[in-house]
Amino acid sequence: MSNPSAASPAAENPADDLVLYTSEAGVATITINAPDQGNSLNAAMRDQLTEWFEWASADLAVRAVVLTGAGERHFCTGANLGGAQKPAPPRPEGAPERAMGDASRMIKRGWQRLVASILDCEKPVIAAVNGTAAGGGAHLVLAADLVVMSDTAKLVEVFVKRGILPDAGGAYLLPRIVGPQIAKELMFLADSVPAERCAQLGIANRVVPAAELNEAVAALTERLVASPTKALGLTKWLINRSFESSRQTAFEEEAMAQDLLTASDDFAEGLTAFRERRSPEFKGW
User: Fold this and answer.
1) Residue 238: exposed, middle, or buried by beta-carbon count in 10 A (0-12, 13-18, 19+)?
2) 130 and 270 together in one domain
3) What is the pLDDT of residue 88?
4) Residue pair 53/83 in contact by the 8 Å Cβ criterion
5) pTM (two decimals)
6) In a domain, 285, yes or no
7) Distance in angstroms (rounded) separating the CA atoms of residues 141 and 128
8) Same-domain pairing of 78 and 201
9) Quick count: other Cβ atoms within 10 Å of Cβ 230?
């Protein structure tokens, strides 16, 4: 097991004991370690998560990323509303305590940046959902590439119960997975969605008994680590881009991505292994 280096985000962020990061055998595991507060995220924890995803994306030793929560009850229950926010610049004399743009700036630089760091991570991200994923925590699940849920886990679009809008990219992500009508049902009614229904709706790839969650995730990461990492990253990029692209743009980006990939060592290894009728040994670059 390797630990973060002195140059890593842990050296700069005070939330390192509440957001744990380990890297072993090509798999980075990021654990939200605050079970006594439902694994909810204060500002420092949220930003630490973002930085770890950005770190894992750039680390050539990492070939897959797992996000999970500590304990057995909660994956992540969204924002810790009682946590302190980052200090704002001082206000001029006579300025209001809250000005236009303050709230949107906080959302853009906070949860939206976190969700984007998962979507933009160049490595496949697996959400190992060990318990309740609510609010922003539900949207961390939606942003992941693969989702494995414990049979005791559930997803809750809780926002309407608090009188607020779904944020953290939820209104963008959920309709793309389940369609607009189901998305409206889940967000309007804010009912708990059990793991089995999440699988039926296409939110979860696997639902397994709670005791088998780690084993099921390990089986997936083992396959991902053995795969050509750059090819996976570009495939992820093309799929995510497909919802905003015209056919012409999608075809052009596909050709460009394929062109880029031909310069990778793993591309050459794949062709060589095919010619030699053996299994390829991909390095991840």
Assistant:
1) middle
2) no
3) 72
4) no
5) 0.89
6) no
7) 9
8) yes
9) 22
Beta pairing, strands 27-32 & 19-24: antiparallel
- Same domain, yes or no: 191 and 73: yes
| Residue 115 within any structural domain of the chain | yes
How far is Cα 152 from Cα 129, in angstroms, rounded to an integer? 9
CB 78 within 8 A of CB 39: no
Find out whether 69 and 32 touch, Cβ atoms under 8 Å: yes
In a domain, 68, yes or no: yes
pLDDT of residue 1: 45
- Is 146:127 a contact under the CB 8 Å cutoff? yes
Count of all residues that appear for the chain in the document: 285
Cα pseudo-dihedral 33, 35, 39, 40, rounded to 10: -120
Instruction: Give the chain's domain count.
Output: 2
Contacts of 251 (CB under 8 A, 6+ apart): none
Give domain status of residue 281, yes or no.
no
Q: Measured between alpha carbons, how far is 266 from 43 in angstroms, rounded to an integer?
A: 39
What interhelical angle do 180-189 and 170-178 show, nearest 10?
130
Q: With residue 85 as reference, give the H or E element that holds it.
A: none
Residue 103: its pLDDT value, please?
A: 76
**Residue 144 contacts residue 126 (beta carbons within 8 Å):** yes
Residues 73 and 210 both lie in one domain: yes
Longest dimension (CA), the chain: 75
**Contact of 284 with 229, CB cutoff 8 Å:** yes
The tokens describing 275, both together, are 């010619």
Exposure class string for 35-49: b at 16+ Cβ within 10 A, else e: eebbbbbbbbbbbbb
Residues of the chain with pLDDT under 70: 1-16, 82-87, 102
Per-residue model confidence (pLDDT) at position 186: 97
Q: Same structural domain for residues 206 and 234? A: no
Query: Residue 144's closest CA among 128, 130, 132, 160?
Result: 128
List the CATH number of the domain containing 14: 3.90.226.10
Where in the sequence is the domain holding 48, given as residue range(s)?
9-86+100-225
Both 189 and 236 in a single domain? Answer: no
